[in-house]
Structure of uridine/cytidine kinase:
Amino acid sequence: MSQLLLREELDESQRASVPLKAQKNTLLISHGRPPWYGPDGKCISDAFVIGVGGGSASGKTHVARQIVKALGSIPTVLILSQDSFYKYHSPEEIELAFESKFDFDHPDAIDMPMFASCLADLKACRQTNIPVYSFAEHQRLQETKYAYGATVIIAEGIMALHDPALRSLYDLKVFVQCDSDLMLARRITRDVKERGRSLEGILEQYLRYVKPSYDNFVRPTAAFADIIVPGQNNSVAIELISTHTRRQLQERSNSFRPKMVTSSLHAPSLVNEPLENDPNLMILPSTPQLEGIFTILRSKDTNNQDFIFFTDRLSTLLVEHALQFLPYAPLTVTTPLGVKSHGKKLISKYLCGVSILRSGSALERGFRRVINDVPVGTLLIQSNSMDGEPLLLHLKLPVSVRHRSSAEETWVILLDAQIGTGAAAFMSIRILLEHGVKQDHIIFVTFLVARTGGITTLRRAFPHVRVVCGTVDNEMREGWLEGDRGEGNEDGVGRKIWVMNPGMGQIGDRYYL
C-alpha cells in the first residue's frame, strides 16, 4: 500500500502517467505513524534518517527504493532527493545549462543549507516545504512540495555525504559504489529517456563536469559511510540495512495510550481537582435544554434521524461558545438609522477547522452553521488493531497550516466527538504544534470529556490549549472490542479498549448509520 505525495517538474495532468521510477521525492505510506512523543507532550523519538551517497547513475535511487521495499510494514518512509535543492539560476546560467556548459555536479550548485534545513525539520518531526526543480527548464520553480510525518527518511544524492551539516543528521550513512562504465551507460539511458538530452551533450557534460566531480568530491565521501553498497547485486547489503533500521525503530517504539489513562488514574491530586476549575477547559453551563439534548443522545433507543438532529444542535452550541475565545478588536459601525454603534470584529488573520475523522466530522455541520467561509482540514487517526495505539493514517490540512510562516498566525478549531484516553487528541495537537500553530491558538471542541481519562495528562502537556466540551463523564472502564486479536487477548475474542461511562456509544457509527 503506497501513496505518492511528492512529484517534481510535472503539472497535475502529467503526474498520474509518470512511472514510479521517474519520480524522485516520494512518500510511501504503509500502516500509519505511531506516537513519537511522551505523555509530557515532548518529542521522544526523531525520525530515523539514512543518507545515501554515490556517483551519478550509480543506483542510489534504486537502493533507496529497495530499502523501502525491504522494510515492509514500517510506517511512512520518505525518499528525499538532493536534486530538488539545486540553486535558483540566473538567465546566463540557464543559457549555459542548455548548452551543457554549466557544472551541476559541483557542491556549489546545490543549496546545501536549505537541504539541511528541510531534512532537520523532517527529522525533528516538523513539517517542511521542499523546493521543486525542473530539469526541463534548468530552474527551481516557485512552487514547493509539502512533506510531513515520516518515520524513516532516506536522503539521496551525489553530495549527500559531502556536507558536514547533512552528515550530522544521518543515523546511518550509505555509499553506493559502482563501476564508472556502468554509471555512464545508465546516465546516457536516463538522460535520453527521462530528460530529453542528446547523446553528444550527455558525453560532453560527463567528461567536462561529471567525471571530475566524482573523482574530486563524490568518491572521497565513501570514507564517511557506515556501509558500502554495490551498485548492483546488492540484496545482502539491502537486507543488512533494513534489519538495522527495523531494530532501531523497535528500540524507539512507544506504548502511549495506556500511559494516558494510567497517568491520570495515578495522579489523584489532578483527578480530584475539579475540571471545572481549569480556566482553559470550558464546560457548557448545565441547563434543562442541554440536559435534554444529552438524554436523547445517550439513549440507545434514539433513532438515527433524531440522533443526527440533536448532534447538530449540540455541535452548533459548542462552536458558538468556542468563538468567544478568538481575538476581537473594537469596531464602530453605522446602523440603517444613521446611528453609531460600537461593537467587535474578528481579527484573526487565518482561521480554520480541523476534523479528527471520523467521529469528529459529526461536528462539522454545526461548525459550518456558525462559520461557513473558512477551510476545514482532516486528520485520520485510528487505533492499531493489535495494541490499541493511535496511528496517523492521513492528514489534509488547510494551506495556512501547511506553511510555517502562516501557521504561526492561524487559529485552529479542532473537532472530535470525545476525549476519552486522549490519545487522538494528543496526537492531533502535536501535529498542529509541529506545523507551527501556537498552543494558545488551538481550541478543541468536543461533546464529552472523561474525568478519569487522558484529559488530566492533556492539560499538563498543553496547558494553553482551550478545550470546549458539553459535559464531563466521571468514569472510564476497560472493555473489549469484539472481532480483533490483540495484546493480552490472543484468542481473538476482542481487543482491549477504554470506554467512557455512561458515554454516547460509537458516535461516528451512530451519526453515519
